[in-house]
Design a protein that fits this description.
Elements lengths: L6 H17 L7 H8 L3 H57 L1 H11 L9
Length: about 120
Amino acid sequence: MPKKLSADDVAAVIRARKILKAKGFDQNTDIKTLCEAARISRKTGYQRAQKVMQCADSKRQPVDTELEQLRAEYKVLKQQLDDVRFENEGRKVAWEIHEVDKLLAEKKSTTVKRKRKRR
């Protein structure tokens, strides 16, 4: 059974097949034929592929590091948000239990607003 592919691997295969189709090659063309069409040896073809992969990996490493940092920060922020939501729900329940809304409504209706005289 073949190994599982990552999403990036699948994207690379799809891109490679699109390139082959655009250049007029069959999707199942072997490496030797591709290298001959490019007028390079198979060894050179594999060396260039290795360099491209190393370059892509070196560019990707900082992005992966930043992604992990962002995921960790997201986890912390999500926990803080959940805590605040829990506290707010508790406050709402406390207001309902102690009928604070009714008390505030009564207080508003009993206070007399004084009007200022206009000069």
